[in-house]
Amino acid sequence: MKKVGIVMGSDSDLPILRKTMDTLASLEIPYECHVYSAHRTPEEARQFALSARDNGFGVLIAAAGMAAHLAGAIAANTTLPVIGIPCKSACLDGMDALLSTVMMPSGIPVATVAINGGVNAALLAAQILAVEDTDLARKLADKRAADTRKVLEKDAALQAELNG
Ligand code: RP5
């Protein structure tokens, strides 16, 4: 199976990416995780993106906060699909990173998930890999079914509490 590449702009973004890694691990998807910044280590970020396809990656996830140009900078240097996670920082509630990540000009797409959307980034990466992987597609379907069961169990517990 192709690997998922995870890049974060700073180790301060790590709590969000832990959810990404946990979700990928739960689906037995191989991943590699790095701290590369678009502005502090632009050359390393560029080289990672340029070599990603040859290094066995199928999807890249890029997470950054504030003026979050990391996902766009990664996407500029690869034709692999790039998923952007806007990270919430102390100011502006993450709107800065959301707009910086999602508003890519035509030609270089970044599939942006919600602010701090580490789980959905992993699931979207999994769904992309599952286009050519029926075993992974089955795992994703099983996970959805399990999630559905959990909600219905919560509803049943609520009904029992409210209606005796
Ligand atoms: C961005 O600036 C990082 O992705 C992080 O979200 C934010 C703050 O970085 P630190 O100052 O915590 O390293 O580049």
**Sheet/helix structural class:** alpha/beta
**Ligand catalogue:** 5-O-phosphono-beta-D-ribofuranose
Strand order of the largest sheet: 2-1-3-4-5
Total of DSSP H or I helical runs spanning 4+ residues: 6
**What summary fits the major beta sheet?**
5 strands, parallel
Query: In total, how many beta strands?
Result: 5
**N-to-C SSE string, H for helix and E for strand:** EHEHEHEHEHH
Shape: globular
Mean pLDDT: 98
Rounded radius of gyration (Å): 17 Å
- The proportion of residues forming helix, as a percent range, comes to 40-55%
Terminal Cα separation, in Å?
Answer: 50 Å
Task: Report the portion of residues in β strands.
Answer: 15-25%
Any low-confidence stretches, pLDDT <50, length ≥5?
none
Report on the architecture of this protein.
The protein is of the alpha/beta class and 164 residues long. Helices cover 49% and strands 17% of the residues. It is built from 6 helices and 5 strands, in the order βαβαβαβαβαα. It has helices at 14-26, 42-51, 70-75, 95-102, 118-130, 134-163; strands at 3-8, 31-35, 57-65, 82-87, 111-112. It has a 5-stranded parallel sheet with strand order 2-1-3-4-5. Helix 1 runs parallel beside helix 5 and helix 5 crosses helix 6. The radius of gyration is 17 Å and the shape is globular. It starts with a strand and ends with a helix. The mean pLDDT is 98. Bound molecules: 5-O-phosphono-beta-D-ribofuranose.
Which descriptors would you attach to this protein?
binds 5-O-phosphono-beta-D-ribofuranose; alpha/beta; five-stranded parallel sheet; 164 residues; 17% strand
